[in-house]
Amino acid sequence: MQRRSQLVRLALAAALLVASRAWAAPTYNLLDLGTLGGSSSAAWGINEAGQVVGAAATATGAQHAFLYTNGMMIDLGTLGGASSFAYGVNRAGQVVGAAAVGASSTSHAFLYSAGRMTDLGTLGGTSSVAQAINAAGQITGSAQPGGGAPLHAFLYSAGAMTDLGTLGGTASFGYGINGAGDVVGAAYDAAARAHAFLYHGTLADLGTLGGLSSSARGINDGGDVVGVAADASNTQRAFLYRGGVMQDLGALGRTASFAYAINGLGDVVGWVADEDEPARAFLYADGVMTDLNTLIPVESGWTLHEARAINDGRQIAAVGALLSGADHALLLTPLDVPTTTTTTVTTTTTSTTSTTLQCDGGVLGDCNVDGALNLFDVLTTIDVVLGKITPTAVQQCLCDDSCDSAIDIFDVLREIDALLGRIPTPLTCTGAAPPITAKISRTPAETVSAGHVRVMRQGNAVVLRNRDAAVRGLELTLAPRHSRLDILRVRPTRRTRHFMTAFQQASPTMPAKVLVLSLSGDAIQPGTGPVVLVDTRGGGRVRWTVTQALAAR
Questions:
Q1: Which stretches within 334-480 are classed as H helix?
Q2: What's the pLDDT tens digit per position in 221-279?
């Protein structure tokens, strides 16, 4: 079974700006992450919480993998050897990389989780390296098979390392993985040329920009791939591969460019360079490539050489130097947000006494417990609603914005409204949510009373029938009936074109949670019409039903 989850972060971030969006490159605050006692450090990965991983010099000069979290750079240690390097981190803070094993110079791929570094082994040979990890804990990288063969790309899942093979040549390398478990990297063909590949059950050659070689470095949940490819003159150029087409992203007037990563919004980061000049970091967004050095304060004295990772909050893990000093790992955080025009929604609620709720020292709405109400709290709340993460006791309090003892669609919408300035902050317990009831209907003839909405299954569509009130969002639970419910995607119809949808299903035999949200103020107007279509691998033969529904105004 192959499942493709809908893009929660892409859809959310896009929908927050959906009404009328004029993108403008944000300016950035720059934070030097320091070292582990030595002179230099380098950042390689970042997650949605802004945790950064990389490698830093210790006081002895050895390079050690680090995790930067809560204002501290943590030395992750090694596998008994002298050095280690961290390359990827997922939302749960699990870190992957490579570390020296014992007294030898051999390195093995590692997983660092819950304070412990675990050796992932190899494909039968002596060495391996892990490059990326997704939210499900699937890992990709490269490992040596037995017999002294060159490295092969691997997918590590459920405790097993699988060789992904090559494109007919001797070696391959895995660099990126998305939420669906699709892997990208580079593999040699029979002519000993390295080409970018996409692994989705089998290796697919993504080609080049007209030259001899290419390498894919990152992939998002939408299947967009970035990397570097040779053009017709065999110059290395950053590329974006989307919809079967490889696009040259340019080089800001310089000769070469290289793309490392892409987020759910489609923003790309990397570097551009000329032969006689140091590299400079870039951000590519909405079709425009920008030198990141123009987006930090001129008086900072820093030069950004490479941007290596970007999250959906547009935080960037980068490498740069202060004046003529050594390179340091850097965290760039946007100081402003893209310009947006939205339609204000007026919501009538039943008010009671408003109180600012404190949960173990936290403020209501701070669902990711980082001390501030921001986009990451919305993302965390969505993950809780969809069942992707289990909330802690503190989060059970902080994420329940509507104070109704349940974390659901109402809490997501309150946090969004707070971020867009529609309701005051800090959030307070204002009483009950707008009175609206979603009733699950089994037959088209069934009617509901005023102030209610009716939700029913109709073919492979979920249909909303609301008599007298516009609905801003739905939270649905779909369950299989006597068969597997293998969801490929959940997509809106023309009637819901101003909405975002997101879903999560642990397995085809388990229920799936679906969110349909309007963030710009548009709503499903009174009447009858399909809300969302469910694409299933079995098509119309799959039997499923709607078992739970919540509606929000």
A1: 375-386, 393-398, 409-419
A2: 999 999 999 999 999 999 999 999 999 999 999 999 999 999 998 999 999 999 888 99
Q: Which residues contact 249 (CB under 8 A, 6 or more apart)?
A: 237, 238, 239, 240, 257, 259, 268, 284, 289
Residue 103 contacts by C-beta under 8 Å, 6 or more apart in sequence? 80, 81
Q: Can you read off the two tokens belonging to residue 87? A: 């390359």
Domain made up of 349-419: CATH architecture: Orthogonal Bundle (1.10)
Residue of 455, 457, 450, 413 lying closest to 438 (CA atoms) = 455
DSSP 36: B
Complete DSSP assignment for 132-179: EE-TT--EEEEEEEGGGPPPEEEEEETTEEEE---BEEEEEEEEEE-T
- Integer Cα distance of 482 and 479 in angstroms: 10
* Long-range Cβ contacts of 63-67 (<8 Å, 24+ apart): 64/36, 65/95, 65/97, 65/99, 65/110, 65/112, 66/36, 66/41, 66/329, 67/93, 67/95, 67/112
Strands 245-248 and 183-189: unpaired
Residue with tokens 């002895």: 60
pLDDT band at 377 (very low <50, low <70, confident <90, very high): confident
**Is residue 417 helix, strand or coil?**
helix
Tokens of 220: 């998002």
Tens-place pLDDT, residues 405-427: 788 888 888 888 888 777 887 78
Long-range contacts of 316-323 (CB under 8 A, 24+ apart): 316/28, 316/46, 316/269, 316/281, 316/283, 316/292, 317/43, 317/44, 317/45, 317/46, 317/52, 317/53, 317/54, 318/43, 318/269, 318/281, 318/292, 319/42, 319/43, 319/281, 320/30, 320/281, 322/32
Which residue's structure tokens are 């971020």? 419
- Report the DSSP beta bridge partners of residue 536: 487
Q: Is omega for the bond preceding 435 within 30 degrees of 0, making it cis?
A: no
- Correct CATH for 437-552 of 2.60.120, 3.40.50, 2.60.40, 1.10.10: 2.60.40
Buried b (16+ CB within 10 A) or exposed e, 300-321: eebbbbbbbbbbbbbbbbbbbb
CA dihedral 249, 250, 252, 257 (to 10 degrees): 90
Q: How far apart are CA 107 and CA 100, in angstroms?
A: 4
Question: Where do the structural domains in the chain lie, given as residue ranges?
Answer: 349-419, 437-552
The whole-angstrom separation of Cα 532 and Cα 502 is 11
- CB-based contact 39:69 (threshold 8 Å): no
Domains 349-419 and 437-552 in one fold = no
> Side chain identity at 511, as an amino acid letter?
P
Query: Alpha helix (H) ranges present in 502-547?
Result: none
Name 329's Cβ contacts closer than 8 Å, sequence gap at least 6. 32, 33, 34, 41, 42, 43, 52, 54, 56, 66, 68, 317, 318, 319
Q: Pick the closest to residue 377 from 388, 390, 365 (CA basis).
A: 365
pLDDT digits (tens, 9 = 90+) for 493-552: 766 656 778 888 888 888 889 988 877 666 677 666 777 888 887 655 678 888 888 888
